[in-house]
């Protein structure tokens, strides 16, 4: 507007000078050529002057009218443009301010609302140090000084804190833009309140940290897989349960499904939804198997699209072993109750039968039947031995508890079975460390346990070999290991050892191991079988060291 107004006089002067010069030059030349009469020329000159004045007035009138009309139109457009920009600035969700020479010349309503000051006049009364948090004042002042010193510098966006009129501290983000205003350097500041955004980001970060802490501290193996079944998350519990470190398996396919077993695919999980506590076997890094309870859930993005699967594996190996032990204990209890009844009912008539057969053995009239009588007595003795095993299972039993050395007991059993070992071409190797192997318990019952176990070891080696007895002590536990070089026991049969009437021998009853399990249990001990077919078997028996009560 100012530029157009200043140019109007120069436009008028220029046009007037050009038009007047042309008129004088052309009219004088024409007058000179048409008449040489001085009086006539003088009258024509007066007429020419008045005509020039009228013509000039008309020209100036139309010129001024055109220029003023155009100027008014431009002023109207400028006012409309200013109004549009004013409305745009006033309705902006951002606070927009104009600063020049350290003073706020303008701030829209949003800017005033952010600061918490009602009017621009009230803002003028505030110093920068009272509006900006003292910790940020120096940094913001340096930016403003740089903008005024170099208007061509690049805009800067920074986060800082403002102190509102009610002393509330808020987080803001401002973009500082250098401009030229009224021929002087100034700065436009566009500000937005990011307090809620920063609070949301903080809460999101804290929630993420909490979830990570829960997953890291959880004893449950937690895995996350993408839609291609690549592992994206592998927590410390997964490292402990399965053996792979996170850096060994993240980004790779899962390797925990045993060969020959069908894995639960991602499409199946998506189709059926959540899976809760499904018992599955999984493979460790060392190849061993672990029983787990599997739970799964789909991972969804913000639009509800499934982009992965979360899987949790709880190690239930101990639970399964406890259930098996409980089942075996229940079987032992049932067999014990049955054994007590059956043994007492059979033993009395069996004793009578044995007595009568022994009388027949002394009768010379049936001497030709002596071999048969001998067989009958032998079988009765075998039946009596089975009844004794049954009575061991019965409860309660009278115990003769005493303190004894288990290394001495094992040496006695070795000597007792040495003859049978020689028949099988089996040799004994004793590996006893120099410890105090004093144990408190029922010596005769434990003697029977080791007779059964060592006898089984001998009979498992029809081609001969070595039976190694290892005796050691760890803290308050005595450990006995019986190692043979026999045919071994298949893995699927190891679980059934000690069950009533289960045996791997053709002529066995299974009661020997059953009674051994019962005796070891009564001594608060444990027994474990490790076997490889064709290599041999190791039986590990452990007893807690207890002192005889005074």
UniProtKB/TrEMBL annotation:
<feature type="domain" description="PAC">
    <location>
        <begin position="156"/>
        <end position="206"/>
    </location>
</feature>
<feature type="domain" description="PAS">
    <location>
        <begin position="81"/>
        <end position="151"/>
    </location>
</feature>
<keyword id="KW-1133">Transmembrane helix</keyword>
<feature type="domain" description="PAC">
    <location>
        <begin position="276"/>
        <end position="328"/>
    </location>
</feature>
<feature type="transmembrane region" description="Helical">
    <location>
        <begin position="46"/>
        <end position="64"/>
    </location>
</feature>
<keyword id="KW-0418">Kinase</keyword>
<dbReference type="Pfam" id="PF00989">
    <property type="entry name" value="PAS"/>
</dbReference>
<keyword id="KW-0749">Sporulation</keyword>
<feature type="domain" description="Histidine kinase">
    <location>
        <begin position="341"/>
        <end position="547"/>
    </location>
</feature>
<dbReference type="InterPro" id="IPR036890">
    <property type="entry name" value="HATPase_C_sf"/>
</dbReference>
<dbReference type="InterPro" id="IPR035965">
    <property type="entry name" value="PAS-like_dom_sf"/>
</dbReference>
<keyword id="KW-0808">Transferase</keyword>
<feature type="coiled-coil region">
    <location>
        <begin position="64"/>
        <end position="91"/>
    </location>
</feature>
<dbReference type="InterPro" id="IPR013767">
    <property type="entry name" value="PAS_fold"/>
</dbReference>
<keyword id="KW-0812">Transmembrane</keyword>
<dbReference type="Pfam" id="PF13426">
    <property type="entry name" value="PAS_9"/>
</dbReference>
<feature type="transmembrane region" description="Helical">
    <location>
        <begin position="7"/>
        <end position="26"/>
    </location>
</feature>
<dbReference type="GO" id="GO:0030435">
    <property type="term" value="P:sporulation resulting in formation of a cellular spore"/>
</dbReference>
<dbReference type="InterPro" id="IPR001610">
    <property type="entry name" value="PAC"/>
</dbReference>
<dbReference type="GO" id="GO:0006355">
    <property type="term" value="P:regulation of DNA-templated transcription"/>
</dbReference>
<dbReference type="InterPro" id="IPR000014">
    <property type="entry name" value="PAS"/>
</dbReference>
<protein>
    <recommendedName>
        <fullName>histidine kinase</fullName>
        <ecNumber>2.7.13.3</ecNumber>
    </recommendedName>
</protein>
<dbReference type="Pfam" id="PF02518">
    <property type="entry name" value="HATPase_c"/>
</dbReference>
<dbReference type="InterPro" id="IPR000700">
    <property type="entry name" value="PAS-assoc_C"/>
</dbReference>
<keyword id="KW-0597">Phosphoprotein</keyword>
<keyword id="KW-0067">ATP-binding</keyword>
<dbReference type="InterPro" id="IPR003594">
    <property type="entry name" value="HATPase_dom"/>
</dbReference>
<dbReference type="InterPro" id="IPR005467">
    <property type="entry name" value="His_kinase_dom"/>
</dbReference>
<keyword id="KW-0472">Membrane</keyword>
<dbReference type="GO" id="GO:0000155">
    <property type="term" value="F:phosphorelay sensor kinase activity"/>
</dbReference>
<keyword id="KW-0547">Nucleotide-binding</keyword>
<keyword id="KW-0175">Coiled coil</keyword>
<dbReference type="InterPro" id="IPR004358">
    <property type="entry name" value="Sig_transdc_His_kin-like_C"/>
</dbReference>
<feature type="domain" description="PAS">
    <location>
        <begin position="207"/>
        <end position="252"/>
    </location>
</feature>
<keyword id="KW-0902">Two-component regulatory system</keyword>
<dbReference type="InterPro" id="IPR036097">
    <property type="entry name" value="HisK_dim/P_sf"/>
</dbReference>
<dbReference type="GO" id="GO:0005524">
    <property type="term" value="F:ATP binding"/>
</dbReference>
<dbReference type="InterPro" id="IPR003661">
    <property type="entry name" value="HisK_dim/P_dom"/>
</dbReference>
<dbReference type="Pfam" id="PF00512">
    <property type="entry name" value="HisKA"/>
</dbReference>
